[in-house]
Design brief:
Elements: H1 7-22, E1 25-29, E2 32-36, H2 40-49, H3 51-90
Antiparallel strand pairs: 1-2
């Protein structure tokens, strides 16, 4: 990260209201636009300027993460069940056909 003139600090100051509102950055790279989370440095800057807003953002991040974790575990359980069913269909039991 740059130490002398703080390029990221200038960007943060220019777009602080958008970053606080959306908790994301919009980047354009190679004709593609992507949405990314703000870097930790921006959280440090926001903490100095508006600690209450930062706490609100952190609370929202936690709620979002918990919601996504719940969705992931539910979908992961469905996938796991489907995989087990497919594996069970492929199981061959040669010992049942064995006659002495």
């Amino acid at each position: 990260m740059s130490r002398n003139p703080a390029i990221a600090k200038e960007y943060f100051e220019d777009y602080m209201h958008e970053i606080k509102a959306t908790d994301s950055l919009i980047l354009s790279r190679k004709n593609k636009t992507i949405e990314v989370s703000p870097p930790r440095y921006f959280s440090k800057l926001l903490e100095k300027q508006d600690p209450i807003a930062l706490e609100h953002i952190k609370t929202n991040r936690l709620k979002k993460r918990q919601r996504l974790n719940k969705q992931f575990t539910e979908s992961q359980a469905e996938v796991s069940k489907t995989i087990k069913q497919i594996k069970m269909q492929k199981v061959t039991r040669d010992f049942e056909d064995y006659h002495e």
